[in-house]
Amino acid sequence: MDNQTEIHWSMRCILVDWLVQVHNRFGLLPETLYLTINYIDRFLSLKVVSLAKLQLVGATALFVAAKYEEINCPSVNEIVFMVDHSYSAEEIFKAERFMIGLLEFNLGWPGPMSFLRRTSKADDYDLETRTLAKYILEITIMDERFVGALPSWLAAAAHCLARKMLLKGEWTLAHINYSGYTLAQLRPAVNVLIECCRNPKEHHRAIYEKYCDRKYKKAALFVAEWITNVSI
């Protein structure tokens, strides 16, 4: 972000918050969201973007990521509708070609969801733990401190914190084996994640509102209550 002249971290947060809402409305896979953010951050590290084009970068990244991950991806007309016709279909296609070229066609990326699934094996894929971990993991896309962090580390930290909140016991040898990280290695990330959870409506409003839904077992409300009790 240091090379950007008009865009700051707060603007990235606004963009990602909007993308979370769009991603949710389309009902896309979690992998698509993480891949979208990966494309955006890589693109912004290579190209100076004006504020007027930032939403175009985000919409294009989602368009490309959906094509890579989804069976049924949004059409270009649906993307145009989601940006309120701020950009035309031709502009989206042109931006798509430019983005793919700038990324040198390196579109694959081992996102954190794959590592979360592997780590979950240590708990026999416990649904309660995994759902809570998915919420905690998604929070990381909103925070600049996690940009560039290893997805395996983020996934393990999210799973570790979920187990802590649910009183699931110690971080065992099985967890170390499947995640590749000891508790000591995860503590820095866990501490930052707890900090991120303290003001969810300011830090990650769209994600918070999404995970308040029964579909996600109201994970966001559970975390908010846990944070309140810990703070007392």
From TrEMBL:
GO biological process terms, semicolon-separated: cell division; mitotic cell cycle phase transition
Domain Cyclin C-terminal: 110-225
GO MF: cyclin-dependent protein serine/threonine kinase regulator activity
Classification via PROSITE patterns: CYCLINS (PS00292)
Keyword field contains Cell division: yes
CDD domains for this protein: CYCLIN_CLBs_yeast_rpt2
UniProt-listed InterPro entries: Cyclin, Cyclin-like_dom, Cyclin-like_sf, Cyclin_A/B-like, Cyclin_C-dom, Cyclin_N, Cyclins_cyclin-box
Keywords: Cell cycle, Cell division, Cyclin
SMART domains per UniProt: CYCLIN (SM00385), Cyclin_C (SM01332)
Record domain Cyclin-like: where: 17-101, 114-195
Family label: Belongs to the cyclin family.
Name used for this protein in its record: Uncharacterized protein
Source organism per UniProt: Lipomyces starkeyi NRRL Y-11557
